[in-house]
Amino acid sequence: MFTTPITAVVRPSAATAGRATSAASPGAIRDRMCVVEARIAIVVPDGPEAAADPEAERVRAALAEAVARGGGAVVPPGAANGLVWLVPARPELLGETLDAHPGIRWVQFPWAGVEKYAEAGAFRDEVTFTCAKGAYAGQVSEHALLLTLASLRNIARQARTPRWLPMPPTSLSGRTVTILGGGGIAGKLVRLLQPFGCHITVIRRRPDKLDGADDTLPPSALHATLPGTDVLVLALALTPGTRHVIGRPELELLPPHAVIVNVARGAHIDTDALVEALREDRLAAAGLDVTDPEPLPGGHPLWDDPRVLITSHCADSPEYVTRMLCERVERNVRHLRDAHPLEGVIDPTAGY
């Protein structure tokens, strides 16, 4: 049936073993306003990819426990009305799974960004899809602050210089910070920035004001905002509309003392334009947890630029990710049973 093997973690309870049950979508549950069974399949990679991941068994076991704490039962896909999908970058395989098991009406992804599934048209009207957006914001916002301070204080250059090299730092206090994106990471970062007395502008699609920000503006205000920006932080979802949202025109609008920090997706920035801006001293520094391409190949000019600090897409730790994902799954299983709205619902139109 499947083009590549997958494994479903199956620990059915005695009450559900061998019993055929009907599926219920979150919408149908809300309509009936009653508690229903949450029968959840956990689908993980199999074969060499799984064997190479020493964390796979720990994550599988932790998620099974999370489902149980939420009041659900782990079952095979054929008996499930919910699915935790852990197979990366295989939207066609998800489609085959949903076609084979039409009783599944809810799919939970473990990632905050689901652009590969959105681009492949994997979302379906009859299925509710949720992701981990906002779940990992705590550690990612900390990393954004670290990259900001390191960029302003010349940490990359200092660390690479094998001799005494006094350099005057730039303080974050009182600086103007522009954050692209208004989700969980932005919200956490705004709170982390409060002690520094920054003027914070958040640019996002939703018009409602983000708590703690001085200004919340629509994407159309980006170009008008950039000339007054000291620190530009990218913390938004990757969609066709936000790919290369920072390119040569945007980099030319930033003042030459500005620094740019990216904790979202590498493709938000036109890498060639970034290299050019640094080469021409039109940008003071860059702190990147993500790159395009990713991984960034050896010999790329960004590796050799002493103003660039690159961390290898490691803003959040595996232990933290597993813990936050399990908490999200536990709550969503409980919400499914109790006819409450699910957390992290994906807007298929927006792509995140």
TrEMBL record:
Keywords: NAD, Oxidoreductase
GO molecular function, one term: NAD binding
Classification via InterPro entries: D-isomer_2-hydroxyacid_DH (IPR050223), D-isomer_DH_NAD-bd (IPR006140), NAD(P)-bd_dom_sf (IPR036291)
A Pfam family per the record: 2-Hacid_dh_C
Gene Ontology CC terms, in alphabetical order: cytosol
Domain D-isomer specific 2-hydroxyacid dehydrogenase NAD-binding span(s) in chain numbering: 146-315
PANTHER family linked: 2-HYDROXYACID DEHYDROGENASE YGL185C-RELATED (PTHR10996:SF178), 2-HYDROXYACID DEHYDROGENASE-RELATED (PTHR10996)
Protein name: Hydroxyacid dehydrogenase
